[in-house]
Design a protein that fits this description.
The chain is of the alpha/beta class and about 230 residues long. About 40% of the residues lie in helices and about 25% in strands. The strands form 2 sheets. The protein has a 6-stranded mixed β-sheet with strand order 6-7-8-3-9-10, with helices on both faces. β9 and β10 form a beta hairpin. α3 runs parallel beside α6. The longest helix has 16 residues. It starts with a strand and ends with a helix.
């Protein structure tokens, strides 16, 4: 479904990604793990069209999207739930959800997907008229994910969904990620909590200083001595 080929991305003179290549097959959960500054968020932002690669290509279902605008990429079927949640604080939960569907005109489909999102995240149903800025961190994360789902993506990009959340909420978020995937949405997950990411993912890539250092089945990387020492604290 997604193929990233030899991606190089720069911030001015600084090279953030050095020839990153990865693939995501339809129906998979693939995770990118690595320390801060490894290039995980940069990779997602480039796939979303928010950053332009200086070299390399990104193919979605065989079509190059490396030069496409972010809204065009959303129309093709890729949506991102950003790091830091990025909810519109002065708008209600309902308004945030409706913004997720801004490129769509199928009102019946939007209503159906909104209902599905509120079933996945029942806490949001209880707070549907509340300002997003007054939600807890966990609720804002749920809203960011639900808003992305309203674009009806075939590929969902999740950037640090567990960041700063209490352990119980983290368990809930990862349980919902599994559910979203089981219902047919392919997921590319960036996550600092390597233990949880490797539990939920089918395959994983380890990024170090803008390069792919390791890749493989998630269950194999979870038992790798190198990964355990570096990322799992074992």
């Amino acid at each position: 479904m997604l193929e990233v080929r030899d991606l190089e991305v720069r911030y001015g003179a600084i090279v953030a990604l050095h020839g990153v290549s990865l693939t995501v097959a339809q129906g998979e959960i693939v995770t990118l793990i690595g320390s801060n500054g490894a290039g995980k968020t940069t990779t997602l932002r480039t796939i979303s069209g928010l950053l332009r690669p200086t070299k390399g290509d990104i193919l979605f279902e065989g079509q190059s999207i490396a030069k496409s605008a972010p809204h065009e990429i959303v129309k093709l079927g890729i949506a991102q739930s950003p790091e830091g949640r990025g909810v519109f604080a002065n708008m209600t939960v309902d308004e945030n959800l409706r913004l997720g569907a801004y490129i769509r005109e199928d009102q019946a489909g939007i209503a159906k997907d909104k209902e599905r999102a509120l079933t996945l995240f029942p806490r949001l149903r209880e707070r549907i008229g509340q300002l997003a800025g007054t939600l807890s961190g966990g609720e804002q994360q749920m809203l960011a994910m639900a808003r992305a789902l309203l674009a009806r993506p075939r590929l969902l990009l999740l950037d640090e969904p567990s960041l700063g959340l209490a352990p119980q909420i983290v368990q809930t978020i990862f349980s919902i990620i599994r559910e979203i995937n089981a219902s047919g949405t392919t997921i590319l997950l960036v996550e600092q909590n390597a233990r949880m990411a490797l539990k939920v993912a089918h395959r994983a890539y380890v990024l170090e200083v803008g390069e792919v250092a390791m890749q493989g089945q998630a269950k194999d990387l979870a038992t790798s001595d190198e990964v355990r020492k570096a990322y799992l604290g074992v």
